[in-house]
Amino acid sequence: MKTLPTLAFIGLGRMGRPMAARLAAAGYPLRVYDKAGPVRLHGASSCDSAMEAAVGAKVLITMLPDGKAVRAALMGPKGAARSLKAGSIVIDMSSSDPVATRALGKELAARRIDLLDAPVSGRVDGARAGTLSIMTGGKATTLRKVHPILEALGTRIFLAGPLGAGHAVKALNNYIAAAGTIAAFEAVIVGRAFGLDPALITEIFNASAGRNSTTENKVNQHVLSGKFGSGFSLALMAKDVRIADSLARPLGVQAPLAKKARDLWRAAEKTLVHGADHTEIYIYLERLPRKRKS
Question: Residue 291: what pLDDT?
């Protein structure tokens, strides 16, 4: 029977915890660390630092809020890179800045550690079920080595291109989702002001060309229900839109909608309470001052 490699997993939040649980259930020896404190996870050993978690690990996975947190976990005073041996692999499954990812990759390569960026899409339910879509960037040979590990987490695994490509695609994907969220919420707000039933027009959108992930999965479930609990924060969505916008500018590409979406998400982040769910941008849009009818 083939012995499975020891894995380290850094960042056990809403997404990270069910992902780590799937790896432990698949039989991988697992060492975990989260800065919030000790982690109780069946089949995993909780560690006191990223450096400790990386001891003996062949592959280390990060699932953190952004690239700055990833860099700190790897390269900080008690960073995992201090324990990782030459030939090991780091998989950053966070949503990070692709330019910073490439810089980090060079630093790790100097230590003979390979970096693969592999952000995911599919929400918490997908993390629990192991049905995430995983968009990777890096060497094809590195992806082949860790493919069985990623198969425990997702059903669709893409190699988008060289290092940083996964993070670029993830930011662009979330920008599309963010712009679609604003459009769908504005349509509901305008329809409601016109006297239309928001649940009914959402049903019509979902049977028509206006259907998108927001009309299907957010309007009824989180807005009209008043739950606003998708599990993905407004701050993270705003960050991803900023990354998408920042990709366009140095390339000389005009992306006016990305800039407008960036400004709207930034304004909502500053206005709403800390920790707001991203679906709460509906509240921000609904509260915008209305112009008097002429």
Answer: 82
Mean pLDDT in residue range 51-66: 97
Look over the chain and give the mean of its residue pLDDT values, rounded to a whole number.
96
294 assigned to some structural domain: no
**Are 124 and 216 within one domain?**
no
Residue 231, C-beta contacts closer than 8 angstroms, at least 6 positions apart = 14, 123, 124, 277
Pairing state between β 154-161 and 59-62:
unpaired
Considering the domain boundaries, does residue 292 fall inside one? no
Give the domain extent around 207. 168-287
> Do residue 181 and residue 257 come from a single domain?
yes
Question: What is the Cβ-side half-sphere exposure of residue 96, based on CA atoms within 13 angstroms?
Answer: 32
Q: Say if residue 159 is in the same domain as residue 15.
A: yes
Of the pLDDT bands very low, low, confident and very high (cuts 50, 70, 90), residue 2 is confident
pTM above 0.70?
yes
Catalytic residues: 170
From 133, 163, 193, the end of a domain falls on 163
- The domain tally of the chain equals 2
State what percent of residues in the chain have pLDDT above 70.
Answer: 99
How sure is the predictor about 293, in pLDDT bands with cuts at 50, 70 and 90? low
- Judge if 270 and 207 occupy the same domain: yes
